[in-house]
Specification:
heterodimer, A: TIM Barrel, four-stranded parallel beta sheet, globular, B: alpha/beta, five-stranded mixed beta sheet, three-stranded parallel beta sheet, 43% helix, elongated, binds iron/sulfur cluster
């Protein structure tokens, strides 16, 4: 088989993995080729608007398992291919030299056994690191059920090592991926967490959940994420809107991948990690799914309007973060600025704070930015939703 | 008549001039580089100023390294009044010293921050968007047309990343080239350097095709979103981006 065709098959089967980041490592170029940029670098953007930073491929799309949602499941009648380690090195190095990519994302279907597959991954990556002295970013997927000794080897070669939980709950996994055991996935996460340091998986681990293939609510999904962040110190949880590839009675028949929902989950995930929100602030069992029309923070603020408007010049950092439209960067700017001067509305604009949403929720030196009579839930909600309406088209496609 | 003070087109000359103006309490109505043609109501003034490293050191000591870096980025921008912005920033920095950056309510500070962020942002984007071609003799060759003068910043990045490669990066807008010889890079005017070969290596088309195949394959068609792609990867860069230039 030609290299071109192999690449096509093995990129096609890797594309549903949502992880794209290349940040968090500062591997140096020790007399070879490449280094890692700790901020991460996007090299291109695909037709779906997602960032391309790594050469995202599978080593092989052959698999002994039959996970229902997966293109590569054994029962699918598709073309199969396998890369040799040398082929992967050739493509990676040639792409890297031309600055097409930031590094390699290598995953694999399971051939023969988890251990056998892991050994192939290790062989490939150590060739790249040792023979070709490649110091660019590498993210490898660990194969659930493999020997911990192999996790040790692979982790000391890569920047990020991760395992996908894929389905938000144990039941989902039992239903759609009967041969995968969730304890095998948590074992990997546990191992990586316990061993992580500057030389072992320096960029930490991440995971991915498929959204909408099973019936979990947003509340269940966010609870799972939050416990994963706590338990395993994950850097990121990625959410991947389920794209119906296979026909199966156990799978929902969707027209479109649930992209708005995916976006809401990312927004909420952000609130958990950087804004000091808890899942129970955002959702509960009576109200288990996010509002499709409003982002989670605005939705929360409208339900807690009695806490607003907040005075920009005096409220705490965490209170600033609760204001819709004010992000971490703006909040920090406000805190440092107000030590030197009293902030007026014009200053906010000058400081790069976007007022589109925030204006409804703040006082600036005692002044409400728009008409005080309009400080009512219905009014604010209507205006924000309408304001977003022009973007909705884009969102739906996002 | 408006007084326009003229500097040789480099950062050090500009700083020396501003240092001189501040010291002698001369208030410029404008500051421009040597290529500036004055309007009817303007009067170009070229002072003979001896460049002195001590002046630069004095500035750094007073405003701090971070502010110094920021005004350097402003200098690299195409902002119409960048020299005056730097002048006013330094004027205020004499008063506020290292705390100057906290004064975001001053126009010169918010402008310096806005413009420097823009330059850093473009330079960061270009670290991803730049595309090398392999020429004969293993030379890597790239062209770009950035809005800001980021060739030096980009070169520093590739200086460590591709340190064992021969590479050339050309800024077609400013007609300058950066040349790396595996030890260091230098930036020269295009007319002062002739590239010995422009022929692509035998392997080049092959690799380009592999990349284009990858690019096409990796997008999920059920999620197609051109607007989002364009937001992240503005059209003005496409001309030199291998995988999308055909779409222009
Ligand atoms: S083990 Fe992985 S590759 Fe194999 S069927 Fe399941 S999800 Fe697909």
């Amino acid at each position: 088989m030609e290299l071109q065709e192999k690449l096509k098959i093995l990129a096609d089967s890797a594309k549903y993995d949502a992880s794209c980041s290349s940040s968090g490592s500062n591997r140096k170029n020790k007399d070879g080729i490449g280094n890692a940029a700790s901020s991460g670098i996007c090299h291109s953007f695909a037709s779906d608007g997602r960032c391309i930073s790594l050469l995202k491929i599978l080593l092989t799309n052959c698999c002994i398992y039959d996970c229902k949602y997966c293109l590569n499941r054994k029962s699918n009648n598709i073309k199969r291919a396998i890369f040799t380690p040398e082929e992967i090195c050739t493509i990676t190095l040639n792409f890297y030299r031309r600055n097409y990519i930031e590094g390699l994302f290598l995953s694999s279907g399971i051939i023969k056994s988890p251990d056998y597959t892991m050994e192939l991954l290790i062989k490939t990556i150590s060739l790249l690191r040792n023979k070709y002295k490649f110091n660019g970013y590498i993210h490898a997927k660990a194969i659930p059920g493999c020997n911990p000794k192999l996790l040790k080897q692979l982790g000391s070669l890569v920047d990020r090592l991760s395992a996908n939980i894929e389905l938000p709950t144990e039941n989902g996994l039992k239903l759609l991926a009967p041969s995968k055991e969730s304890k095998n996935i948590s074992q990997i996460m546990e191992y990586v967490k316990n061993n992580q340091n500057k030389k072992y998986v320096p960029a930490g681990q991440s995971t991915q959940m498929i959204i909408g293939a099973t019936k979990e609510t947003d509340f269940e999904i966010m609870n799972q994420s939050s416990s994963l962040y706590d338990k395993y110190k994950l850097k990121r949880v990625f959410y991947s809107a389920y794209v119906p590839i296979n026909k199966d009675n156990l799978l929902p028949s969707l027209e479109q991948p649930p992209l708005v929902r995916e976006n809401r989950l990312y927004q909420a995930d952000w609130l958990l990690r950087f804004y000091n929100f808890k899942v129970t602030d955002l959702l509960d069992s009576k109200n288990p799914n996010f509002n499709i029309l409003l982002d989670p923070k605005t939705d929360w603020a409208l339900r807690h309007l009695n806490e607003f408007p907040k005075e920009i010049n005096t409220c705490s950092y965490y209170d600033l973060l609760k204001i819709p439209g004010i992000g971490v960067k703006s909040a920090k700017r406000i805190i440092t600025s107000r030590k030197t001067f009293t902030i007026h509305i014009e200053d906010l604009k000058r400081m790069g704070v976007v007022l589109k949403r925030a204006k409804y929720f703040i006082l600036c030196n005692g002044k409400y930015v728009t008409n005080k009579d309009n400080f009512k839930k219905e009014y604010i909600e209507k205006n924000i939703v309408l304001g977003d309406f022009s973007h909705i088209e884009q969102l739906r496609l996002f | 008549m408006k007084n326009v003070y003229i500097y040789e087109n480099d950062f050090i000359s500009l700083l020396n001039l501003i240092f001189y103006l501040l010291k002698n309490k001369l208030k410029p109505e404008n500051i421009k580089n040597e290529f500036y043609t004055p309007s009817l109501f303007e009067n170009n003034i070229t002072l003979t100023i001896t460049k002195n490293e001590k002046n630069i050191e004095w500035i750094i000591k007073n405003i701090g390294k971070y502010s110094m870096k920021s005004i350097y980025y402003v200098f690299l921008s195409e902002e119409e009044n960048k020299e005056l912005i730097i002048y006013y920033f330094l004027l205020n920095a004499l008063k506020y010293r290292q705390k100057i950056m906290y004064h975001r309510n001053l126009k010169c500070v918010s402008e310096v921050l806005r413009i420097s962020e823009y330059v850093i942002h473009e330079s960061h984007k270009m670290k991803g968007f730049l595309r090398f071609k392999e020429l004969e003799k293993n030379i890597l060759y790239a062209e770009m047309e950035p809005t800001n003068d980021i060739l030096y910043l980009i070169s520093c990045h590739f200086n460590s990343r591709l340190k064992n490669e021969l590479w050339i990066i050309k800024d077609n807008r400013r007609k300058i080239i950066s040349i790396h010889d595996k030890k260091q890079f230098i930036i020269v005017k295009e007319k002062d350097f002739e590239i010995s070969t422009q022929k692509e290596s035998i392997n080049e088309k092959n690799i380009e095709n592999l990349w284009k195949t990858f690019y096409k394959t990796i997008g999920i068609k059920e999620r197609k979103n051109d607007r989002c792609r364009m937001n992240f990867m503005p059209k003005k860069y496409w001309k030199y981006i291998t995988e999308v230039k055909k779409e222009l």
